[in-house]
Write a structure and sequence with these properties.
heterodimer, A: alpha+beta, Butyryl-CoA Dehydrogenase, subunit A, domain 3, three-stranded antiparallel β-sheet, two-stranded antiparallel ribbon, elongated, disordered N terminus, B: 6 helices, 60% helix, disordered C terminus, binds zinc ion
Chain lengths: 208, 191
């Protein structure tokens, strides 16, 4: 058994602990700095994977369906999720367009893909080097995935536009909002799951 | 493996350099206009981050003005101030006030992302409001500087290794790696 992975390391102070046995709803705190290092969900060990897959499915229509429809003196414009990136790019703000593309679209998608890959391949007692690498990548990508901030930005824009043009929310925005909610849920479960809880996963049972 | 002490000294210096660059970029970010709104029959105007907030306030949207003020001004300023405290404390005397400083790091790491709000706002408006002479929004260079502040601050936070705050304090209990964990049933009351 991989000793490094059977331990729980505090993300803040680096203290390692034996992976605890938790009852549903219990959480474990770091003995040195008090940070929550593990939590046993009430939803079962495969909740993280279910949340991530749901978010991934919702992400597809959020790119393709109308995000917002604007009307000014009878002129109608339908904007997709990528509209903001396009707007910055067309006005010559290339680097900023890339930042918005990364934080609003690429990093959230990448995070979901990595979560699904990690949880799907984590089926044995010793998940191996590839799984550990994917896990590290997921932590790196997560910092740059900010779909919830993009949603707040669009909300503020609605109020700013109220007097200038008519705005209607499209189905793309609803899907994007739901996808980002499921991403947050998946990330939280993924992050605080212990090896003991993962060992109870359907995937593990099926493969061993 | 490089000892934590040496590794952290150089990463502290890098974090400090990134934080100082972010502080410098704050000047153009708040001084320059971030976008331009043109509406047919009205005088066109450039808005800065702070004048945009003031505008929301004048239109009677106080709550919204407070949210944008928090995300676009309080968060970047507090985050850089918190980072400066952490860097100074870790540089001079690692291992003191570790509990408090770890909380500060956690908060800084958590709130940081919300300062991207203004970048997303200007991006959305410039992509959506394109009605030619009737109504249009164009981004202005201030938003580029603001985006740089956000990215530099995030890079500085990631470069800072919070384990350095605990460098001189020995682990509690027996000091062994397999220290047992504290249990708490939810809802937890943090010590
Ligand atoms: Zn800790």
């Amino acid at each position: 058994m991989n000793t490094e992975d059977s331990n729980v390391q505090c993300p803040l102070c680096g203290q390692s602990h034996r992976a605890p046995f938790l009852k549903p709803g219990q959480r474990a705190l770091c003995i040195r700095c008090g940070t929550t290092v593990a939590e046993r969900g009430r939803l079962g060990p495969d909740a993280a994977l279910a949340f991530a897959l749901t978010a991934l499915v919702l992400a597809i229509p959020s790119f393709l369906l109308p995000f917002v429809t604007l009307t000014k003196f009878g002129n109608e414009r339908t904007v997709l999720l990528s509209g903001g990136v396009e707007g910055l790019w067309l006005h010559g703000f290339g680097p900023l367009a890339v930042l918005v593309l990364v934080c609003g679209i690429l990093a959230p998608l990448g995070l979901l893909a990595l979560l699904v890959a990690v949880l799907w391949t984590d089926t044995s007692e010793n998940p191996g080097e590839l799984n550990a690498t994917l896990r590290r990548w997921a932590h790196g990508v997560e910092h740059w995935a900010m779909p919830e901030v993009q949603i707040l930005g669009v909300m503020v824009a609605f109020f700013k536009l109220g007097a200038v043009v008519e705005v209607a929310v499209g189905p793309g925005l609803w899907c994007y909002g739901a996808a980002s909610l499921f991403t947050l849920l998946a990330w939280r479960r993924f992050n605080l799951q212990t090896r003991h809880e993962r060992a109870r996963s359907m995937l593990t049972v099926a493969s061993s | 493996m490089i000892p934590l002490r040496l590794q952290s000294r150089s990463s502290l210096a890098q974090a400090a350099a990134l934080a100082i660059s972010a502080i410098i970029m704050m000047v153009p970010a708040y001084a320059l206009p971030v976008m331009h709104l043109g509406i047919a029959g009205q005088t066109t105007s450039d808005t800065t981050i702070l004048s945009g907030i003031l505008q929301l306030w004048r239109e009677g949207l106080g709550g919204l003005a407070a949210i944008v003020f928090t995300a676009s001004f309080l968060v970047p300023v507090l985050k850089l101030a918190g980072l400066a405290c952490l860097l100074a404390a870790a540089w001079r005397k690692p291992g003191t006030h570790s509990h408090l400083l770890t909380r500060v790091y956690g908060a800084v790491d958590f709130i940081g992302r919300w300062s991207m709000l203004d970048v997303f706002l200007v991006a959305f408006l410039s992509g959506a409001v394109r009605f030619g002479k009737l109504a249009s929004v164009q981004p202005r260079p201030g938003i580029l500087a603001f985006g740089a502040v956000v990215v530099l601050t995030m890079l500085a936070t990631h470069r800072f290794d919070p384990r350095f705050l605990w460098a001189d304090s020995p682990p509690p209990a027996s000091g062994r790696d397999d220290a047992a964990i504290q249990m708490a049933t939810t809802p937890p009351t943090l010590p």
